[in-house]
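User: I'm putting together notes for a lab meeting next week and I want to include a structural view of one of the chains we've been expressing. I don't have a solved structure, so I'd like a prediction I can at least talk through. The sequence is below, exactly as it appears in our construct file.
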Amino acid sequence: MQRCLRQDRIESHDIHIGEEHFELRFTPVVSEGYVNLYARNITEIKRAEAHLSYQASHDPLTGLYNRYAFEKFLDEALLRVQASNEGSLLLYIDLDQFKVVNDTCGHVAGDELLRQLGDVLGRCIRDSDILARLGGDEFGIILNGCDLDHGSELAYKLLRSVNEYRFLWEGKSFKIGASIGMAVIDGDSDSAIGLLGEADIACYAAKDKGRNRYEIYRAGAGLEQRRNEMQWAAILPEALAQNRFVLYAQRIKPLLAGDVEEHYELLLRLRDDEDGLIPPGAFLPAAERYGLMSSVDLWVIDRAFRLLEQSAQPLSLAINLSGHSLGDERFLDYLLKRLARHNLNPARLTFEITETSAIANLSLALKLIERLRERGCRFALDDFGSGLSSFAYLKNLPVDYLKIDGAFVRDIVDDPIDEAMVQAINDIGHVMGIQTIAEFVENPAIEQRLRELGVDFVQGYGVHRPEPLTEVLEKVAATA
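Assistant: Thanks for the context. Below is the predicted structure for the 480-residue chain, given as structure tokens.
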């Protein structure tokens, strides 16, 4: 039998017949002058590939494109702009009041709300536009070949559609809002990540200006602040891992005779690459905005507890807790475990929470206060008087100290209204068995006036300039 010599090259083609897919392989038989054809049904393989491709590029909850696919579409939009000089727009949409639905009705309701809102947004845009869920309650839209005038009209249409929408769940009706940030995709755009950052900055500007509106990204003081905050959001996790934070302490001075215990509030600084110290006002707003405050709070607690345990000095420390920590149910368990692990007297620990964060997380704040007071810890309500309903909420918050907002204290010598406010807060606090602490005490005249009013403690640069906690512990040890 003559052996058939076959050419090495084998050609393969896929064809689609009805709903079936076939792979056709052609193998030339050179010596005989014909071609062998092999056919294989690959329908299931193609379906599996399509399913995997869809999963890789789409959000499983809403069925919209996901962030990974969206960034690829942004890269393609950038290439088109560079080739044709035809601009496009990026919209970054953050829902308002979504958390209310999640907290009130649960995550199942929240998921359904996101699905329905995806449909609402999709009905507002053109077929050529790209809509994606970027994560959480955030959406993105690429408006291809769209100028600012048309983009602004569409942004207004989106806001109106979301605002008019009502979410119904188990007999309850919810009204949702949105804030939109808009960034121009043009020849000056550098990358998809950079564009998303610009749109995100503009979105936060819209939130700061009252929500339910849109803002266009333009380089400026306010928007540059948001860009700086985003940079801090990348720096802070690394700083936590490298222990670059430093604890400072400021004395809280008793005005009445008989209190011999040393009281200090812990303050935070960040050491930079050149061993300089960065004040908290530079980085804490970014930590608040990007959900890093609980991690910062835990670092402070761990560090403070270790230093107190090592020194065993007779002083009381006040530790600030953020609103993020109050709203995190896991935080209380972590804190209780830390208290059990360290050999500390809980009565020497005071946790400070702001009035606004306590009101915003009232049920969780009450739970945390009650559990820690059972262990012997104390609580201070910071910035008291800054809210509109301060006295009404005070009856529901079992705290040991009221820290009178410094806005009322700094001009108390010259402003009779400020003096009256401080007097009222001090009197009500004492009626309820709560001691008072006046902040922003900058000179002896303010301190003397507060002593005359019967305020229990004072704190400020006129009383004590903050020092590193390690140095404070050494000084207390030397005088013990």
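A couple of points you could mention at the meeting. The radius of gyration is 31 Å. The first helix runs from residue 43 to 57.

User: Perfect, that's what I needed.
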